[in-house]
Amino acid sequence: MAGSGAFVELLEEDVYKYYFDGEWRKSASGKSVSIINPTTRKPQYKVQACTQEEVNKIMETSKVAQKAWAKTPLWKRAELLHRAAVLLKEHKNPIAECLVKEIAKPAKDAVTEVVRSGDLVSYCAEEGVRILGEGKFLVSDSFPGNDRNKLCLTSKIPLGIVLAIPPFNYPVNLAVSKIAPALIAGNSVVLKPPTQGAVAALHMVHCFHLAGFPKGLISCVTGKGSEIGDFLTMHPGVNCISFTGGDTGIAISKKAGMVPLQMELGGKDACIILEDADIDLAAANVVKGGFSYSGQRCTAVKVVLVMESVADALVEKVKAKVAKMTVGPPEENCDITPVVTESSANYIEGLVMDAKQKGATFCQEYKREGNLIWPLLLDHVRPDMRLAWEEPFGPVLPVIRITTVEEGIHHCNASNFGLQGCIFTRDINKAMMISDAMETGTVQINSAPARGPDHFPFQGLRDSGIGSQGITNSISMMTKVKSTVINLPTPSYTMG
Ligand code: G3P
């Protein structure tokens, strides 16, 4: 079922088409994949189940399109990206409507995701023309024993085909954070959207289509992971993979060929709260960080490590805020909305039951209806509970009471993940020293973890990822340095 204002040209009967060679097409498979609305738990949309043969054709076409695109002037690439950004913002409502229906993102946040994506695309165009317009000039006599007879010119060249695989929680924003850097750098893009979120992604791709990018440069393939997942990530045509998601990323990194990888695979972001912290500020950030989009963010606060002396005060303040949260459908802009699938809800419930059985204190009653789980703060969580280490990706937040700062740092560093963390204290010296000791890609001082603004570097240690994102880092990652060396005659050569 198409939403009001949706792009009708993407639909045939009730199935959304995939995008290849500048056209919307039906798969030869004749099959489709259903997208279940997390709120109604009924089928909402259908997308094409593409075949491996179709993936092969996409790769061939992408390769040809990329060669021409690499020769397209940078300003022209930027101009098209700016146009796509405008179109994205113009169509923010129909795209947001898909996000509401496919991933139960609260309506207001869904619109924000699309607008943020437009901003990202524009910024990327601006940044690209600057950083890709510069190279280096090296002279050989700066190295021991060399004369000044070699001049080295470097520039950044594209990698080829970038395979972009975004996750369900930001199917638009985390798609454009891969697509825009790839395109400005002269690559072509093959997008494989997540099943939940695929229709929003197809609408986003249509904005790039309307912007007038050359045929074949951008493709969007939908289908079953079992049929085209490994086939795509192991495809010899792919020159770079940018993936955001869960454990699948670990499997991809083991199977992928010799191509650069950019991976962001989740986190168990710790929030360390010291005795001298502003407890009101900390409580507000624990709630925002732990429960926005029902905790379905890699950067969500996933464990609170609070000093025992201020733990009661913190827990009381967080409880009071949680009691005011609205729970219900995304269309009504509730704070807590259904989690993305029934299996996610079951997984979250498993973590909650494990904590219950092992003696955690429930600050609210555990309540679930279908995929909707009421926000839950669990106090006195101990390291033997799964919730202390595992990522619920839901509105469930464990509190571990600590007696020393070292205990908090140790817990944070013992995790398999190392994405972000945060510290609440009024002592900046302490904050800096703790930040230095925390083994995470980013540490936020006196605020909850967050990826944005989208030009900030974003990276994780250990199982949280490979490489660094953020607009500039992504552009660099999707290019390779090319050197041209001019060899002058030997120093004995005379010009006169
Ligand atoms: O969940 C992935 C991560 O990129 C979240 O981003 O903007 O909510 O901090 P953000």
From TrEMBL:
Active-site positions on this chain: 264
Catalysed reactions, semicolon-separated: D-glyceraldehyde 3-phosphate + NADP(+) + H2O = (2R)-3-phosphoglycerate + NADPH + 2 H(+)
Keywords carried by this UniProt record: Cytoplasm, NADP, Oxidoreductase
EC class (word): oxidoreductase
Annotated Aldehyde dehydrogenase domain residues: 24-483
One Pfam short name: Aldedh
GO cellular component, one term: cytoplasm
Single GO molecular function: lactaldehyde dehydrogenase (NAD+) activity
Record's subcellular location: Cytoplasm
EC number(s) from the headed UniProt entry: 1.2.1.9
Family: Belongs to the aldehyde dehydrogenase family.
Protein name: NADP-dependent glyceraldehyde-3-phosphate dehydrogenase
Organism in which the protein naturally occurs: Cryptomeria japonica (Japanese cedar)
Gene, per the UniProt record: GAPDH
